[in-house]
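## Example pair
The file below holds two records. Each record gives the amino-acid sequence first, followed by its structure token line.
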Amino acid sequence: MKKTGFSLVEIMIAVAIIALLAAVAVPGLLRARIVANESATQATLKSIAKAYELYAAENGGAYPTDETDLTSGTNPYLSRTYDGAVLEGFTYTVTPGSAGYSIKAMGNPGKTSSVQGYLITTGAVMSTID
């Protein structure tokens, strides 16, 4: 009577192959996550800036002096406030003013982004912060 099954060597080879495949795939998946976080953060910043610019266009060029001006009313410009919020690993800081605005999203380089952060200012001008 012959016993069927896998020998220890066969199992060790299978585990080594799986470990090798995981070692190749995991860095790519982590990089994809970082790129997704950065893209989502840039899109969020552009949406916030668009709300500020639309508010100014509808109010004689005056920007809101408080972020809640954008979230109140029957037709709010934004559905939520972002100052102090943490989304996709980025912490948002909103600085409104009657003459303009600046919105900063600071990340954790290496874990949530490849850059330290993004800054968008009056006129929807975006730049990276190193």
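Second record, same layout:
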Amino acid sequence: MEKKEIFALIVNRCEELLTILKSNEELLCGDSANELAFSACIDHMNSLAGEISQNINGLKGYKYVSFMKKFVSSDLKTPLPDELVENKDNIFYHKKVVLTGNLLHFPSRQVIAEFLHGLGADINSTISSKTQIVVVGTSAGPSKMLKIKELQESGNPIRVIEEPEFIELMKEYGIE
């Protein structure tokens, strides 16, 4: 089933559920004593809600590929031993680095993390007082951006590198 078809089913079932709610307000919220009708109405709404949930999960399948682009394997979250870092003369060496947002020029975060890992960076997924550099793409999470601002205002010198500057740094270090 195509995404648009799934979406149409969700809309249709939501409209049907809303119609049931509106037309049965007295039965569901009033002092009516018709338990059989009440139970039947609740069962029907549960059935619709189940279909809506299944269809939403169907849409999630389309998002899996997008999610995987943001995934960084755990082996990259442990810094390389110093003897394995070829070029220690770079701004990422021994720095705690977080990637956030969508970096449009890269196929996945894994690729960026591998590059930074090779430069001796300590890749993290959350921003903390130990974070030193944040590489920011489009649609960066507002909570992460707020956390950066709060930490900077409290004296933590977090360097924020937007994607265009990151691309220039990559060129500087010979990665194109």
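Notes on the second record: Residues 64-68 have pLDDT under 50 and may be disordered. Residues 3-69 form one domain.
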